[in-house]
Amino acid sequence: MRFLLLAGFLTVTIATPAAARSENDEYKACLKLTKREPELAFESALSWRDKGGGFPARHCASLALLEMKKYHLAAERMEQIAQDMHKAGSPLVVGMLAQAANSWLLAGDLQRAQAVASAALDIDPGNIELLIDRSRILAAADNYQDAFNDLDLALRLDPTRPDALAFRAAAWRHLGNNQRALEDVNLALDLQPDLVEALIERGILNRLEGNVDAARDDWLKVLQISPHSQAGDAARKNIEKLDLKN
């Protein structure tokens, strides 16, 4: 998920360099607080908003809601911020829509997530990050052909994206072409040997080919790299399935 600080946020509202530094410092402090104490960060962001904090304060409040796992509320707020940014002529609309789409994905509303991601791509059709984001939403909805199409376009724009290769490998597999899937995933790992999504996928492909030891090695490597992540959880579950069969 991509919920990073949007560079340039303050250009919409700040008039002087000194004020910009002050607002930027407050924004960064608010973002840090969302990680430690999201409830307090949310209240602080609302207070800052009421004092004229504008888009940065509203964005921080949305991220605090995300940290509290209130994904639906965060997504709604981000969509509204994007609409207001559009009216204000901000160049950051696409980034905010991307964050809203990812928030809807976390909320489990795949239809809304796809609609928002598509709206962002209407504005910026060659945005590789957005194409990859929408492909993940489409895959979550079991629409692997359209997910593949987005990833294929992303890789035509930049053939060296290991994450897009790993996700396209999964799409190939679901579409019934394990050989092309293995080609993509091996290329992804050539480019980035520690990419956990690619290791998970290669493990699945190895298991399907009967290469159980190779599958286990891939998933064990994921646990070494990132044990406390979604990929780590997936690796653990896959290893447990292997052990049950044995």
Annotate the secondary structure layout.
Layout: H1 17-36, H2 38-67, H3 71-88, H4 93-107, H5 110-123, H6 128-140, H7 144-157, H8 162-174, H9 178-191, H10 196-208, H11 212-225, H12 230-245
The biggest sheet amounts to: none
- What is the ordering of alpha helices and beta strands? HHHHHHHHHHHH
Structural class: mainly alpha
Helical run tally: 12
- What would CATH call the homologous superfamily of the largest domain? Tetratricopeptide repeat domain
Supply the CATH architecture of the largest domain.
Alpha Horseshoe
Please identify the top-level CATH class of the largest domain.
Mainly Alpha
CATH topology of the largest domain: Serine Threonine Protein Phosphatase 5, Tetratricopeptide repeat
Compute the separation of the termini in Å. Answer: 35 Å
Structural features, described:
The chain is globular. The chain has three domains: 1-125, Serine Threonine Protein Phosphatase 5, Tetratricopeptide repeat (Alpha Horseshoe); 142-193, Tetratricopeptide repeat domain (Serine Threonine Protein Phosphatase 5, Tetratricopeptide repeat, Alpha Horseshoe), CATH 1.25.40; 195-246, no CATH class. The protein has helices at residues 17-36, 38-67, 71-88, 93-107, 110-123, 128-140, 144-157, 162-174, 178-191, 196-208, 212-225, 230-245. 79% of the residues lie in helices and 0% in strands. The protein has 246 residues and is mainly α. The model is unreliable at 3-16 (pLDDT under 50).
